[in-house]
Protein 1
Amino acid sequence: MDCVVTGGNVKVLAKAIHSLSRIGDELYVEPQDDGLALRSVNSSRSAYACFLFAPLFFSRYTIPSTHTFLCKMAIKSVQAVFRSLASLEKTVEKCHIKTDEQKNRLTFTLHCKHGLLKTHNLSYQDSESLQAVFDKDSCANVFRAQPRLLVDTVMHFPPSLEEVTVSVSSERMWIRNHVDEEADQSKAMLTELCLASDEFDHFVVQAHNSVTFCLKELRGLLLFAESTGLPVSMHFDAPGSPVVLSVTDSVLEGNFVLATLSDDPNHRGAITPPPPPPDDFMNDDIDSYLIAMDTSIAPEPSATGPPTPQLANSTCTKQPAAANHRRRLHSEEEEEEEDETADSDKPPNKKFCSLFFGSVLPSTSQMSTQPITSQEVLASDSEDDT
Amino acid sequence: MPLSTQSQADDEQYVLVASLDNARNLSNILKAITFKDHAIFSATPNGLKVTVEESKCLQANAFIQAEIFQEYTIQEDLVGFQVNLTVLLDCLNIFGGSTVPGVSTALRMCYKGYGYPLTLFLEEGGVVTVCKINTQEPEEPIDFEFCSTNVTNKVILQSESLKEAFSELDMTSEVLQITMSPNQPYFRLSTFGNSGNAHYDYPKDSDMMELFKCNTTQTNRYKMSLLKPSTKALALSCKVSVRTDSRGILSLQYMVRNDDGQICFVEYYCCPDQEGEEE
């Protein structure tokens, strides 16, 4: 890969990386024919974000024609390249991104004012493709707003707040802080904001639902949207199915897919719940809370890891997630889970998930006796065997 | 002015008397070298030199010329003492170190001689505070024998461009490598951190480069932890001169402009990291 970003686009790229850093610790870089994809997923796999920069975003964009290149690297080290966003705009004239596959290095060269040249050689790891399975076009509720509206709304919530609940009617949207059901309701402070439909650029509600999702990632996206001035779209269906936040421009697209808290299964709309996962909580049913992640091994000639069953049965599926498709993924996931047990780098999914979905999970003492039916499996995932 | 009402008779007992209308002109420059508590003060008729050292590898000197002071009298050719720098700075900021224009703390610093405390008279808004700081036996500062005839490479840069680089340096790197060369990359700062390496290259014809005099290619590594205190001086300065001698000892000279537009100098000497070299 060899690409050049100039002028104001350098800042856009930097902002995208900063906003991805709100999601996860690793940045997945994948130069594709349709542009450079930068992705990140959080450790509990409940949030995923992807920016796709079209070839036109770059003043030069060349990708390896012979093979697919995919890598992941610590997002902190990439952030360090674009450390001071303030000076970036004033000083950086050009950013050159180049891969050195012999040395497993991604080189960022910033050409700054006064001839100053900043070169960062960052080491990367080979990785599999990271792709969330989501279909925002099939969502019943679709909104689009100027970033200012959402920034002003989110501003009222304390930084410590983890989740917000968004409820909609045909005329209005309510956003309030989510209070854990286990928390003492009498002591909790509730903050609720109501936005009228005319404050939005686009407001379509087909299902009067409430969804609860993490605020941190929304804030991350707003960081990007505000600096680029791009309107933010929001797509969601029912509780338990992901909310998709996106920004789109002629040369870039950003999608943030966030898991939402699952509700009572009776309230489910069109989505068919998968069969209840096995009772054993410690096994892998916690993964059923995970957001849709579809991974596939890139056809790399120099794949370092030993071949695993994923190669055979985990094919890339980017089509809308259908219920049966999810079931299939779920079974794969169990196999993959076993493969991963030796992987010490695996993030501590279970703990975080149980926190994140604390309000829908039975207390741990009941955990092993109650089958959990309200969760749906959207994803399978596997880490690189490195 | 309560400070000027001191009787002349009193003054005669002091071997050193130095007054400043604005104590910040002294405290600011002392901050640039504050990384250890003990500071060696050497006063000569030319002015005051304050030295702070670390691990016999790093030395910082602040020079405040006699002209900076509104009054500067010295009875001997050399007056030396050692005080706790942190305490001295606390005293100089005893009125809160206000940065409001027009409000300043006046200072009169007196020293009677060996065994006596350093006495500070500080006045702001008609209130006078007298601070006495016990002095210690002055140590002999290390002589790095850095002499301009042995300088192999020298560049003078506008501090602005180095500030940016230093603020972004990868602090996970143990060393900062400085390359100076008559050929490319001319002047390069490199770090080797957890996530990879980074280089900052300054071309010799950059607007930021005031002087470029490199005779031989020299690459030396300096401990990041030793260089870190120098960023305080960098932050205050407007220009910096980077020199290395034939032994690889680094000299960083910072030109600092004070509130009144006068110029003072701060100098850092740092020994190269010997690891990885033949010796």
Protein 2
Amino acid sequence: MEKEVFDYSKYTDSVHRMGRIGLSIGALMLLSAPFLFAYFLDAEIDWNGFLSAIWSVLIVYVPSCIVEYLIYVPLLGPGASYLSFITGNITNLKLPCAANAREIAEAEVGSKENEIISTLSVATSSLVTMVVIFIGVLLLIPLTPVLENPVLRPAFDNVLPALFGALGYQYFRKSLRLTVLPLSFMTLICIIVPSLMGQTSIMIIACGAISIGLSWIFWKKHILK
Amino acid sequence: MSYIEAANSLSLYLIVGAILLFIALLCVLFIVKSYRAGIRIGMDKKVLRRAITSSATFTVLPSVSILLGVIALSGSLGIPASWLRLSVIGNLQYEATVAEIAANSMGLSLNSSSLNVSALSTILLVMTVGIIWGCLLSIFTMKKYSSKLAIGKKSNSSGGGYASWAMVAMMIGLCSTFVGSYIAEAFVNVNLVPVVTVVIASLFMALFEMLSKKYKVFENFSLALSMLLAMIGAVIVSMFI
């Protein structure tokens, strides 16, 4: 009975309202932080330095921010996207985390269930990251020698290979046909132009475009069902 | 007061603490709201709780890696600025690159002996303005954009259609980017540790997926456990390679 009474569009509207108000306040707080730092440190912003730096940063990062926004919102849904775009670490944490929760909950992309699971997942992940960093900051002095111990260093240098190895197993086996081309493309192009190995944020767009393009062709030809 | 003492002063910790507290509060509000909505549309409480538990366990190890980024940046920018930047929009790769660009544009380098408090505030402003665009796009266009995509308009039982495959394809593209770069690294730099870590993680993932069919407890922890074991594997492999 309760299920029938619940108006999901009202929930969606309230998510947008909370997201917009929350992100507006959050963005203002973030933008004011450098000025507050300058005020409390009795310093001044170096506007010449700022202007000469910001152009080169904007040229590179504004297009990638726009592309990320266009790609990630359909995958995550609005609630999770609002939080992802204020808490960051989307590619290396929020997106895989939400995908993992979605797999476990067996929710379908674009469904109400997926929207709710993704929001729960990204919000929890953001909180856990904040708590871990907070505890780490509190324990920074005793923890630093442990975390920077040369014996343990390879463990933390290889968090992303560990993450994408486990996640890769989950997704590659869903369709080996979809995997072969983007994986071979990335491997070969990085062997030919080794500097691209460090440009994963840009290469994600290329590999994502290849695999989505292929999936669309396969879908149209009824190879994927 | 030296630069590094100023960069680690109490007032800066309080500013950062207030901002992060607000964002944490926003996360809690989203959890409460979506959890209640999940129950109202008839989702099982167990499924909702499992989403929270699996996301929490999944996040711990990557968060320790982010903490390492805080440690790495704190040597030049102080703890409060590094703590703020790595807890909100962005990632270590972005923050380190942009901090270096900003320092260089002022004729400085990213180390505590070269920086001063004005440079610190300026670097923080460049880092913030450079990455805020996704957040601004969300504020101004998310409602219109997501309504065009018809997100949340169908129920779980209506069938995934192409959207499910698009998600799978995007994740394959994402994984291919990273895994491909590790394979290339093995060829170009003869650094085998990342690719061996990938193999170890995928083998453990396969094992835990098999076990989770029999023992449900593995379902929530298989990814986190596979990562942990692969990271231990990376330490062992590094000793021999």
